[in-house]
Structure formats: C-alpha cells, structure tokens
Amino acid sequence: MHPGGIKFGLSHGLLELNGAGVVLSPPLLESISGMVRRKIRRRKRVIWIWDEAVAAGLGKVLARIDAPRQEYVPFYTGLDRIIFETMMPIAEKGRIAERHGRYFCSEHTFYRKMRQDIRRPHMRLEANLAWRLHFRETLALIRQLLAEYSPEDLRHAELLALCQLDNWDRSPNKLTIDDFLKDA
Fold first, then answer.
1. How far apart are alpha carbons 35 and 147 in whole angstroms?
2. How far apart are CA 126 and CA 171, in angstroms?
3. Which of 108, 119, 120, 156 is most deeply packed, by most CB within 10 A?
4. In Å, how far from its chain's centre is CA 80?
5. Predicted TM-score of the model (pTM)
6. How far apart are CA 23 and CA 11, in angstroms?
7. How do beta strands 21-24 and 97-100 pair?
C-alpha cells in the first residue's frame, strides 16, 4: 500500500503496524468479517459479495472521511491486499493457504481434501450451480480445518472462503474462469 494510504489508515484507526507490515485493526477486521457472514447467510450468490461486504464493513467503522484525496484513494486501492495480509496468518494456522514470498496460494493439502468423490455440475452448462457448489464445498472444508487447527478463528470462515474463492489474488488483470467461458 502507498505510504499515503497507510497514513490514512493508521490515523483513522483502520490499520495497525505488525512488525514491518501493516494489517487491519481488530475492529475493522471484525466488521468486515461480520458483514461477509451476514451477506453470505442472506444470499445464494457469492460471486460479487467481496466489494459490497468490504464497503459495508468499512462504513460501520469509518463514518466520515476528512482526509485529502491523496491519502484515502491509495488506502482504498490497497485495501484488498491488506485484507489478504491480515487473513494469511489465520489461513496458515488453519492449514488453508500458505505464503510464498509476496504471494499467497492454497496449501497443497487443501485441494487433496476437497472434491473427493463428489458429482459436480458442468461449469459451462450450469455455471451458477457449479459456483454455488464450489463455494459451499470450500466453506465447509474451511470450517472443518479451522475447527480442527484454529477454533478461535472460526468466526472468519466466510471471509477466508471468499479469499480462497479469489485464489488469494484480487489484481485487476487476473484471468478468471469467466474469461475463458465468454469465448466458448
């Protein structure tokens, strides 16, 4: 995140320093996680939930912006990465994902446990049903792993599932399965 965004986040109590890194403050993390939980329980679709839940969670903690544009714009553009940075230690403790330098990815045993002997709808023919089933499988496995390895973090299971669904990468130039299905 740009130093202006870090300054904005620290001055408004949205970020904290964690050694050499920056992470979300506990109130903001709880707010975003609570919003994700609420939105997932209310809706059947989870594909476009990330931005809604992050904005709603941020809105509960940050009532008014009184900083110059040069500070809050970098904060918002780097927020997704900071969320991943904050969630990664929880994911590593729960054996869900792991860090490789600056990048995050699923732990090698995660997908071994997932999708064993399950009939799945075809991704092209029934895309919505396939995504819903994929998310439910991911969430169930994350809840199972957190209950086993890190029960104190079970309340963040839905947020971890969204991170996992995005493959720990929200960069705008990332190719998704939708990009491949458009051409078909």
1. 21
2. 26
3. 156
4. 8
5. 0.81
6. 14
7. unpaired
User: CA-CA distance, 7 to 23, in Å (whole number)?
Assistant: 13
In the chain, what is the greatest distance between 2 CA atoms, to the nearest angstrom? Answer: 54
Distance between CA atoms of residues 24 and 87, nearest Å: 9
Per-residue pLDDT of the chain (184 residues; tens, 9 = 90+): 778 888 888 888 889 988 888 999 999 999 999 999 998 888 766 777 888 888 899 989 887 777 777 777 888 888 888 998 899 999 999 888 888 877 787 877 787 777 665 666 666 677 777 777 788 888 999 999 999 999 999 999 999 988 888 776 666 555 555 555 665 5
Q: How many residues does the chain have?
A: 184
Residue with the two structure tokens 């110059």:
68
Tokens of 40: 């997932």
CB 60 within 8 A of CB 35: yes
